Amino acid sequence: MGITSYDWGLIWDYRSELLHGLLTALEVSVVALVISVVAGLGLAMVRLGKAPFTWIAAIYINVFRGMPALVTVIWIYFGVSLVLGINFTVFQAGVIALSLLYSAFMAEIFRSALQAVPHGHREAGQALGMRDTRIFFSVVAPQAFKIALPNVGSMFIGMIKDTSTFTVIGLLEVVRVVQNVNAQTFQPFVLYTAAAAIYVLVAFAVDLLFRVGEGAFSTPPKGVVSKMLRGRKQRRIEALVAELA
Amino acid sequence: MNTVNPAADPTPGAPVPAEKGVLIGDEERAEAAAAPAPAGRRARRDGAPAAQPGVATTGDTSQPVVRIRGLRKSFGDLEVLHGIDLDVHAGEHVVLFGPSGSGKSTVLRSINLLEEPNSGSVCVDGVEYGPGLPGEKGSGKPAKRGKPIELRRKVGMVFQQFNLFPHLTALENVALPLRSVKGMKADDANRKAAESLRQVGLLQRAAHYPGQLSGGQQQRVAIARALSQDPKVMLFDEPTSALDPELVGEVLRVMHELAEAGMTMVVVTHELGFAREIGDLNVFMDAGVVVETGSSELFDHPTDPRCQDFMRAVR
């Protein structure tokens, strides 16, 4: 069995199916990312708040952090249909499963990020007579967001990988596509290697994207994006200084 | 006991020209002060600080900007302030000093209610904000109590750790509260912020982020930020303690200018040389009580042994 018996051309032949699978995986992940960031932020704030709500948030976080994606999506797709009679599409079930799981992780990421902002900054806001909501949105949240961003990126990569388990409910993502093509071509090594390559390349791309995002928030501004975003503001301040000097 | 109140004048109601502040302390000193002209604790607590017999006073009969009576604060079971009485009149510069853990920062932080006192009266600009004194009519709560956020809008504070917002430029640090507290338009806020930065000599650093500024510059931005809110009184909580020695001077210089411009100031500091220059009323605290008060001569001739020990130790 030499390497020649593998038909690597299959990857090119089925490129459109594979890319379609990737697109589906990304769609599910992006929608779930948005939901779990918002829900996770809310959960983090409840978790940092008063009893008994903080306990409820703690229970939620610990339950869904412990659930495997495979089990969760079966539970949502088949279980909810069985018990409540609600029939989700595979896409919906995938989004719901990922959102439930990853909002628990996001909650922990945002909780630690919010706690990492020095308490003195809140006190400074209070001493200046700023309202609590204003302190949160203008002082604490921007700093916490910057701290959380790299971890959110890691979570997003995890979400994309977890979509591979949704093959059990028949979502046409990368692994499902690979299985279908394999059933016709009997080239599992080639096809699963292709799947691995796709996931790794996407992880690289996401990492790059989030690095650019982090750069945008660096102080002082570093890199093209950051300078583009804040160059105008900077120039306005400099103009004001020149005028008053 | 060993406590002495040099500001206590034996002649009731007589003005003491050397002193501009009124400061009265715990029960021990109350006894000492009351000795020449007996006055009950209750009487002192009722307000009207200046003309009461047995009360340390300067003869300044105007309404104080800050008036603290019977301030007590506990952290858990540990009481760290055992009843502090302090008056700060307009234009006065009050210095709180003493060993660490003596409660001076807690007193300062109680003035803008960053620390909520367990009991006592905190009266700023004629409005009561504290929880009130035990034994007052009712349940110890004053009938009318101002909101902390309103109090803080009248009081500026400068912290040991500067506490600038690191994601904003120097100008934005000053302009943000102008917009959110004073409701100014962005353009007006930026202009006023730039003026405040000019006041502390940092107009040219307006576009810099805190991370690009030295500690001394950061603290000056923090002073500008507090000043731009036009406070009635400025509180300084060890403003130079986190600075490298060569950067202390620039911050003290700004504070000196502020003092000369007539700003009402309460300063917690270990810089006793600076305290001697600006302090109208110097307050030595130890173990949660005011031990000794006086004008600059306090630094040369402390009478209380604890104060003498402290002076020897820092010299």
TrEMBL record, chain A:
TM ranges: 20-46, 53-78, 84-105, 189-210
Domain of life: Bacteria
GO cellular component, one term: ATP-binding cassette (ABC) transporter complex
A family per Pfam: BPD_transp_1
Cell compartments where the protein resides: Cell membrane
Membrane topology (UniProt): Multi-pass membrane protein
Name this polypeptide is given: ABC transporter permease subunit
Organism the protein comes from: Nocardioides flavescens
Source lineage: Bacteria, Bacillati, Actinomycetota, Actinomycetes, Propionibacteriales
